[in-house]
Amino acid sequence: MSAPDPTFSHLDATGAARMVDVGHKPLQSRVATAIGELICQPATIDLLRAQALPKGDVLAAARLAGILAAKRTDELIPLCHGLPLDSVAVDFKVHADRVIITATARTTARTGVEMEALVAVTLAGLTLYDMMKAVDKTMVLDAVRVTEKEKK
Hints:
The chain is of the alpha+beta class and 152 residues long. A hairpin with a 3-residue loop joins β2 and β3.
């Protein structure tokens, strides 16, 4: 077994996982945006647009789920730092066969906020899936990724 890479910040000298110490870093304004898509049958999108799904306003529920998930990211991902989120926005673009989910998270902190944006997109997508699965068993949550990350 080779020695742990000393440049990999999430491992200690013995190779054990550790939370990175960011205490020495300055507070900075940080923003991250993530995107993903829930691929659906066109008939499912028609029901969504008509607000005729059995579980009600699925976009409103998914937006709230995404925001709540971003706020709880450090409880879900073991080595994530708890961040004081300044804002989280979750938006949807409904297309003929998919819903594009975008989340932007902002903070003033010592570390980035991309995990919060990714968790927001993922949980919003899973909430849509859960609330629409009664009418569509073929849905796929796909292509979740960070599209923007900046600090000032």
